[in-house]
Amino acid sequence: MSPRTEEQFEEIRNTKKQLILDTALMLFAENSYHNTSISKIATKAGISKGLIYNYFKSKEDLLQHIFMTIMKNMNLKVNPVDKNEYTQEEAEAFFDSMFSMMCDNPNEWKLYMQLSVQTDVLAFLMKSMSEHKYDHMQASILHFFSVQDYEDPEVAILLFASIVKGFVLQYAFAPEMFPQDTIDRFKQKIKDLFIYNLPKTKPNNNLELDEQNRFFLL
């Protein structure tokens, strides 16, 4: 039997690492981050604790990798904010992508919603987002609201985030309760409220991606 090549070893390493990430995501989503230990992840994945520590320094490091991957995937769906206005077509595409991600990755959203209300965990995750430049999606949404004819854009952002988070929270924990027709009608209503028939005005230069708005949009 021929010895394995470096490429084969790399493939094995990547497969093991992905197994750890997938298992941790599932357990974090089902049992919560705090109630899931490295030992439980190792047992569920059928590997040793030592192997996990070969790839990740700690449970916190493992969570950070998962969260940053979720944020990176979200950001890939968002158009760059490098122009004077956010077009209706781009806004529609963003909403479509957001709902598509929600339906395709329920465990990611379940974990995402849990973490968004755990202030002790949220602090280091928000710091990681800034360090890794993964707050692009938040900046894009903020830019979109800054060029709409809202009397109070910050309240509009809070309203938008609250409605979407509320729906995502319900869907993540009980997807069987939401047939596709219901999701489509809800998505259309969100578009009606926040995209259609809203005249563009001059950008509100007072809107910045500060800690408050970053928290609203997380």
Topology of helices and strands:
Blueprint: H1 6-31, H2 38-45, H3 49-55, H4 59-76, H5 88-104, H6 106-115, H7 119-131, H8 136-146, H9 153-173, H10 180-194, H11 211-216
Question: Can I get a quick summary?
Answer:
With 218 residues, this protein is mainly alpha-helical. The protein is built from 11 helices and no strands.
For this entry, give a set of tags:
Arc Repressor Mutant, subunit A, 11 helices, elongated, Tetracycline Repressor, domain 2, 218 residues, 2 domains, mainly alpha
What would you say this structure looks like, in words?
It is elongated, with a radius of gyration of 20 Å. The protein has 2 domains: about 1-55, Arc Repressor Mutant, subunit A, CATH 1.10.10.60; about 60-215, Tetracycline Repressor, domain 2 (Orthogonal Bundle). With about 220 residues, the protein is mostly helical. α8 crosses α9 (about 155-175). The protein is built from 11 helices and no strands. Residues about 80-85 have low confidence and may be disordered.
- Mean pLDDT across residues: 77
Proportion of beta-strand residues: under 5%
Largest sheet: none
Please mark out the parts with pLDDT under 50 across 5 or more consecutive residues, or reply none. Answer: 80-84
Which structural class should the secondary elements be placed in? Answer: mainly alpha
Look at the structure and give the CATH class of the largest domain: Mainly Alpha
Radius of gyration: 20 Å
Distance between the termini: 52 Å
Total E-strand runs: 0
- Spell out the helices and strands N to C: HHHHHHHHHHH
CA-based shape? elongated
Oligomer: single chain
Any idea what the CATH architecture of the largest domain is? Answer: Orthogonal Bundle
- The CATH topology name of the largest domain reads Tetracycline Repressor, domain 2
List the domain count as a whole number: 2
Helix fraction by DSSP (H/I, runs of at least 4): 55-70%
Number of alpha- plus pi-helical segments: 11
